Amino acid sequence: MPRLSGFTVHEHAEHQLSWVAHGQLVVEAGGTWLLPPSQAVWIPAGTPHALRATRPTQLYCLYLWPADCPVPWTRTTVVAADPMLRQVILYLARPDLPDDAAQRARALLADVLRPDPAATKDVPMPFDGQARDLADAIVRDPGDQRGLREWAAALHVSEKTLRRAFVAQTGMTFTDWRTQVRLRAALPLLADRLPVASVAARVGYRSVNGFINAFRRHFGRTPGSYAALLGA
């Protein structure tokens, strides 16, 4: 998927499991999630949803008929894309896979799908004007150190207007919103085994301890323990 491409709101008669091998995906399905390669999302049959790539992205989607599906979930659920789940998805994506082999592989999903404790719903995106332009820029480069004043000057709008737009369109202050985006941007970097200090710098934290504390407050675990959870 090229950057900013995607699928508008639609639904399927089948359950859908989506995972990005690389890149990043905005998923809207009763909530909004920023999906990195360290996570996959389970979208139950009949759930209206939309997908949009924030950067060049390789997307895998599995579709399972409810009558034959071993997974009982009825709500959109973000799961940890650990090495086992990734291999099952890649195996099921093989075009030459015999039907009986695919059936056996699908039966494994009930054992390897588990909700990701680092997944919290909603990094809402502003939907209009300069606030959306700013949000898209930060999602592309969460390490950008410019504050709201600098962004307001760059976008030729007042700082007060941007601040109010973020609260009105996302329900969050700009600072809180950027913190969530930065922390989610850290997830695929941790899954790729980058050192915590390098991850902190790349997502915009000048202090490693500040990054660790923010990650723990938001996800309930340290960056190191999250990487260990994924087998990184």
TrEMBL record:
Q: Which Gene3D superfamilies match?
A: Homeodomain-like (1.10.10.60), Jelly Rolls (2.60.120.10)
Indicate the segments forming the HTH araC/xylS-type domain, all copies.
132-229
Q: Is Transcription regulation tagged as a keyword?
A: yes
MF terms (GO), sorted A to Z = DNA-binding transcription factor activity; sequence-specific DNA binding
* Any single Pfam family the record assigns to this protein: HTH_18
Give the superkingdom in one word: Bacteria
Q: Which UniProt keywords apply?
A: DNA-binding, Repressor, Transcription, Transcription regulation
Give the CDD domains listed for this entry.
cupin_NimR-like_N
Name assigned to this protein: HTH-type transcriptional regulator RipA
Its taxonomic path starts at: Bacteria, Bacillati, Actinomycetota, Actinomycetes, Jiangellales
